[in-house]
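ESCALATION

Customer reports they have been waiting on this structure for their group meeting. Please prioritize. Original submission:
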Amino acid sequence: MTKKIMISENAVFTELEASNKEEALKKMSEAFSENGFVNEGYYESILDREEKAPTGIEAYDYGIAIPHTDPKFVNKDSLGIAVLKEPVIFNNMVNAKETIEVKVIFLLGLSESTKHLNILRQIMELIKEQGVLKKMVAMDQNELYYYLQKHLKSE
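Update from on-call: job pushed to the front of the queue and completed.
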């Protein structure tokens, strides 16, 4: 049986306004907190990890980022997504000195590190086709929510 990862509807953002990655991640983290998916320190630890190991990726149509952190901050496996109104700067996963203008953020809250790889693989799989991100960026909140529900599994 495939277990579904929790995609909370209020952690799916379209046209999210944020002046930088900190603000974007704060809004997304708060949605997780409100649902009780993550505990105290989650947001700080996301920023901390982003400093040490950036998660910006140059994808086909847009830059994306897949921030995640230590499982100890997670109560329930969860995934959030934000399509930003204007891109924000993240550092490149491959070369931390380079920056990427990120338009779509996939925020992960996962209780075991093995799940990270699984979800990362699925996200990469999903966005590797040209045009998929363009399609996602154009969706409204509801469409985006159901699209992710359909395409991402936790196991």
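Sent to customer with the following note: The chain has a mean pLDDT of 91.
Escalation resolved.
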